[in-house]
Amino acid sequence: MKATLKFTAVLLLPLAFLCSSCEKLLDIPASKNQVESGTVFADSTTTNTALLGAYFTIGTVHSSMKFISLYADEYNTTSSALINLEYANGKLQSNNTNNNALWNNLYSVIYQANTILEGVEASAGLSPTAKKQFAGEAKFLRAFAYFYLANCYDDIPLILSTDVALNRSASQVSKSSVYIQIKRDLTESSAALTDSYQGAGRIRANKASSQALLARVHLYNKEWEDAINASSKVIANSVYQLTAVKAEDVFLAGSPEVIFQLWMVNGFLTDVAQLIPASPTTLPVFPLRDEFYSGFEAGDLRKNKWIGLASVTSSGQTRIYAYPAKYKNRIASTTKPEFVMALRLAEQYLIRAEAKAQLGQTGSASTDLNLIRARAGLDPINSNISQEGCLEAIAKERKAELFGEWGHRFLDLKRNEQLEAAMVPIKVNWKAGISAAFPIPNNEIIYNPNLKQNNGY
Q: Could you tell me the CA-to-CA distances from 234 to 30, 171, 197, 241 in Å, in that order?
């Protein structure tokens, strides 16, 4: 993976705010294919800056997530750009630049994490406590990146070092093998990290971050008891509160529900301007699909607080477009800053509810689910609900609660083997057995002949 072979100091430039203790940005010298580890990992200050670079790269990954919502049944597009229409119509080309960016940025995070792990281990200037902290965060970030690579592309190269010769010829391994590494990284990360956050806010991984992602991984692997145990640890932590935050405030920086957020300069996400139109009469680029919008229950606060409406007149005809508005800031905001929500408490309740329902514990599952519904202003479901009904209610709640966030809807349909039924009626180019996995970027195939393209591309 050519994009992963360089650790670029440019990635660190947006992190000046996070490194407020430094008078100026650190100039990290890098050779052509490797970081000068002796310089970068000589002390906690320089190592910290390198780690923040990996967090920044994860932030760039989030910009790709709206395209996964477009690929699923959440968003539509009014754009005529072919790279967008490929997502909307259900068949990506192997040279799609948005898909390439997702792959490259995720592997960039992995390479940065590997660099940090190797540098920290070899450093003579870091204390054992500092080494433990940095390694724990790096393993969390690596696991986070691998989770999305494995679920979007299925079989992928598993890169665990900075060795250029090995990386440029790495073959794919099975998705199950990647999951083994993800669980190992998260288990070790959870053991290494504490409940405390480093620095201000909740913008760096802590123990709960690793536990929360591990709970999701267990759910995806149908390890129900493990999913319950991991999510329960997070839920039991009084730092995180669900009902203490109003629906409209969930995505603010530092909201009580935050487990892990990604810091954004000036308190706004740069791609929000692509989601929220400039005025109430401007055509949204990524409107919600009509059937998705109409699927919300009457009185659902999420429909009112997390979705905006634009009234657009064209050729004498006026049409109402619904658009995603979980994030509100199109420009800088210091009064109500917003950071990228990466992990939050509502998902943990949904994970635990689903795992409990799978084990037949529908009464306890409905209790978790009803906490989510109560915040949304909805009536509770009956605690005597059947297992099938409970699982259907949880799936419906996940759809309403997590829409537009980190590809949850697409990944839920995929793991539950419901993609074909949902996509074939609405995606003109959707191919059964093919479209569920994204294509490996063509330039990566050219660069590494050991990579095999996914079926049908």
A: 39, 36, 14, 10
Q: Where are the alpha helices (DSSP H) in 251-344?
A: 272-275, 290-293, 301-305
Q: Supply the pLDDT for residue 377.
A: 97
The tokens describing 339, both together, are 């950071």
pLDDT tens-digit readout, 279-334: 999 999 999 999 999 999 999 999 999 999 999 999 999 999 999 999 999 999 88
| pTM for this entry | 0.92
**Strand (E) or helix (H) holding 173:** strand 172-173
Residues 361-410 have pLDDT tens digits of 999 999 999 999 999 999 999 999 999 999 999 999 999 999 999 999 99
Query: Is 203 a member of any domain?
Result: no
Closest CA to 262 of 14, 434, 59: 59
Q: Three-class SS of residue 438?
A: coil
User: How far is residue 154's CA from residue 220's CA, in Å, rounded to a whole number?
Assistant: 13
List Cβ neighbours of 70 (8 Å cut-off, separation of 6 or more). 76, 77, 84, 87, 88, 286
Q: Tell me whether residue 116 is in a domain.
A: yes
Q: Is 100 exposed, middle or buried (0-12, 13-18, 19+ CB in 10 A)?
A: buried
Going by the DSSP 8-state scheme, the letter that residue 454 receives in this structure is P
> What's the total number of domains in the chain?
2
Spell out, as residue ranges, where the chain has pLDDT lower than 70.
1-39
User: Does residue 398 sit within a domain?
Assistant: no
Residue 96's domain is classified under what CATH number? Answer: 1.25.40.390
For 382: left if phi > 0, alpha if psi spans -120 to 50, otherwise beta; the answer is beta
Does residue 61 lie within any of the structural domains?
yes
Beta strands in 266-404 (DSSP E): 307-314, 317-324, 340-344
Do 53 and 180 have their domain in common? yes
